[in-house]
Specification:
The protein is an alpha+beta fold and 87 residues long. It has a domain of 49 residues. It has three helices and three strands, in the order H-E-E-H-H-E. Strands 2-1-3 form a three-stranded antiparallel β-sheet. The two termini are 24 Å apart.
């Protein structure tokens, strides 16, 4: 028995893929917090991506700050409903 997965390149499938990707990005937040749980900042992921594209040196400074001060970056996505049934 063969298990395979296929993806058809059509306008509908590509549009659906792009829409689902943007929906996931819109529902994701980036949180910057201490290990103890104290939250410094929370941004939508799309805003964080735009900031890093416009000002890439902020990414470098952020990595240095994270390493020095032992800070976590948390990606949190809101889930409206479960699409599958867990057994």
């Amino acid at each position: 028995m063969k298990n395979s997965s296929t993806f058809n390149f059509s306008f509908e499938s590509i549009t659906q893929l792009i829409n689902s990707t943007f929906t996931k990005i819109k529902k994701t937040n980036v949180k910057i917090a201490k290990k103890s749980g104290e939250q410094y900042m929370s941004l939508p992921l799309i805003v964080a991506l735009i900031i890093t594209c416009i000002l890439p040196f902020i990414v470098i400074a952020g990595v240095i700050i994270i390493l020095i001060f032992d800070i976590d970056i948390i990606f949190e996505r809101q889930i409206d409903k479960l699409d599958r049934i867990e057994e």
